[in-house]
Amino acid sequence: MYDLHYKFYYNEVNALKGVIIMSTNKNDYEHM
User: Fold this and answer.
1) Domain of life here (predicted)?
2) Cα dist from 6 to 10, 12, 16, 21, whole Å
């Protein structure tokens, strides 16, 4: 149970990081 919850949370954090990285890259590309 705990392991499953941890994996779900970990995936959510990674997804959020991915969105932030994509947004940052998009902004950098538009500024160039």
Assistant:
1) Bacteria
2) 6, 10, 15, 22
Residue spans of alpha helices (H) in the chain: 2-31
Question: Six-digit token pair at 8?
Answer: 């779900």
**What are 18's two structure tokens?**
């991915």
pTM: 0.52
